[in-house]
Fold:
Amino acid sequence: MSITDWPADERPREKLLQRGAPALSDAELLAIFLRTGVTGKSAVDLARDLVERFGSLTGLFAAGEKEFCDIHGMGQAKFVQLQAVLEMSRRALQEEMQSGDALNSPRAVRDYLQLLLRSRRQEVFVAIFLDAQHRVVAAEELFQGTLTQTSVYPREVVKRALHHNAAALIFAHNHPSGVAEPSDSDRLLTHELKKSLQLVDVRVLDHFIVAGAGCLSFAEKGML
Structure:
């Protein structure tokens, strides 16, 4: 049975219009993006297969071009469209984050960092540079590493802070393992960065660890 044969209130598009996007499952949202299925499968069936194969939407979003295009019914055009949607989402969240005081918009900061980092397969270290009013000046990926570690150099972080004339910073990095708990090296690094930046009168406001759907804040845990 094709989606057009379903009751109107069960079709993903109609359901979204009637109940709003949060009412849809991951597969139903993905089906709207896919638009069509393949022989013997509706768009929703195909979407369910994709979510199951990659384990989650996050896993799907992290898929490389070859891995994605090898799936029957997918291809380069769909891969490009998906990457464009993800990048638009990141930019929209970055605009929201930059529109006011970062400390008064913790959800926007957290959402931006999760979308930026949770699907990365290697560790990435990010800094968000803030002015004296805690408005976002810039956000940069400063260091990339392996599956389990990233080398971060405090001197380089200080140089970038001075370059942006930042008064404060928020750090973030991901744990591809999926565990958001900070390691001893994470705690030591945060302490070293805080100490180095104090020498140039720059405050460290927070350090986030993104792991899958989780996002741990050092400030909220009293670890700063």
